[in-house]
Automatic annotation (TrEMBL):
<dbReference type="Pfam" id="PF01381">
    <property type="entry name" value="HTH_3"/>
</dbReference>
<dbReference type="InterPro" id="IPR001387">
    <property type="entry name" value="Cro/C1-type_HTH"/>
</dbReference>
<protein>
    <submittedName>
        <fullName>Transcriptional regulator</fullName>
    </submittedName>
</protein>
<keyword id="KW-0238">DNA-binding</keyword>
<feature type="domain" description="HTH cro/C1-type">
    <location>
        <begin position="11"/>
        <end position="65"/>
    </location>
</feature>
<dbReference type="InterPro" id="IPR010982">
    <property type="entry name" value="Lambda_DNA-bd_dom_sf"/>
</dbReference>
<dbReference type="GO" id="GO:0003677">
    <property type="term" value="F:DNA binding"/>
</dbReference>
Length: 101
């Protein structure tokens, strides 16, 4: 995780987006309400099986909850830019033609 407490912020956010209560999530996870509260308040981190169940319940990738985001650190910026141009500008050979007059 990026920060020790990033998980609980993401958990609360996705729960609220789904319109679920804390009790709803605890029931779906088959854990005690207090155990869930400890997760959402950042007192504990989830076990792997709980993390898998959360990702299924909220239709999110596990990496969403771990705070991992793609990084461009290892990419050559110009190489990436050229590849994107090749992929997307082929679809619109003359960009001026794509703009409505």
């Amino acid at each position: 995780m990026n920060t020790p407490n990033a998980f609980h912020f993401l958990l609360k956010q996705v729960r609220e987006e789904q319109g679920m209560t804390k009790v709803d999530v605890a029931k779906n996870l088959k854990i005690a309400r207090q155990t869930y509260l400890d997760l959402e308040y950042g007192k504990t981190l989830p076990r792997l099986d709980t993390l898998i169940t959360l990702s299924t319940l909220f239709n999110k990738n596990i990496s969403y909850f771990t705070g991992e985001r793609p990084s461009l650190d290892n990419f050559d910026t110009m190489e990436l830019f050229e590849e994107l141009q090749q992929r997307y500008l082929k679809k619109v050979p003359n960009i001026a033609d794509a703009i409505p007059h």
